[in-house]
Amino acid sequence: MSQKVRRHLFLFILVILTVVGFFLSLKLGAVKTSVSELYRAIVSGESEFQDIFFGLRLPRAVLAYLVGASLALSGAILQGYFRNPLADPFILGTSSGASLGAVLSLELGLTIAVSGFSTQSLAALLTSLALVACVYLISERRNFKTSESLLLTGIAAGALASALTSFLLFRRADAYEQAVFWLLGSFSLADWKQVWLIFPYFILSLLVAQYLARDMNLLVLGDEVAMSLGCPVKAVRKIFLFLAALLASFSVAVAGIIGFVGLIVPHSVRLIIGPDHRRLFLFSALSGGTFLLFSDLLARTIFSPAEIPVGVITAAFGAPFFIYLLNRPGKIS
Predict the structure, then answer these.
(1) CATH code matching the domain that covers 3-327, chosen among 1.10.390.10, 1.10.3470.10, 3.30.450.20, 3.30.460.40
(2) What digits encode the pLDDT tens for the residues 117-152?
């Protein structure tokens, strides 16, 4: 099967799965609803479950799709940036920084809401972006020119933030239940405000990434080769790093830490359609959205009416699949 046919078949499957995922997300939930009720709600808007379908379930499904797409795109960017298929959106400390901010806001009892962000969401976003900025500035000041040095700085900063988070939770054991939202991820608080907050940043990031996809293909060859072929390496690296941090930070701010999406999805897509980032970015985003859409559907229906954190579902699927990738013939490439 040629690469072109494979891409078209993969896209067709993604579209079908996405449509099915949204249909099931609207149909299934703690409140039992029928297909006829859903049909009436869509066609005439007269169903008694109108608010459930379009006020609760649909924004949750859309937000799950956008967060999955954002994490997968962020992972695809960083895997190319570091030339390392083990890179993921949280490798620079975005998740640790977000958790620290959320738990710190609980510790201080802050009650500030801005543009639809709750106190914890706003704190998570700001500390996440601040930590990545610090990692980059430290690397620049120390004249770290290699991506490996930036990577190690991010890991160290993330470890420090995680340690501070654990210390705060130790001091305030009563805040642990609220902190679970950030530590394991959830869409239980999803609404249309969050959807419209993350949507423009995702679309803008995807467009910029697609525009610079050829430059990412050159960066994978090495900085010296990329510069010799006309790529403004330093500027492009800054833009890609900013996009990856922005996507991951907004995702954590609205849904908490959801692991494995940004690690497994881009790598799996690369195995199917190849390493060309002009296609990899878009297909990774579409696949990540579909994957997290179904993961959240399982999280809220498998033990309905109770919910489990969506991060548990992604880890349950992602960890075994990652082990398989590590041990497959040819291994990770």
Answers:
(1) 1.10.3470.10
(2) 677 788 888 888 899 888 888 877 765 456 777 888
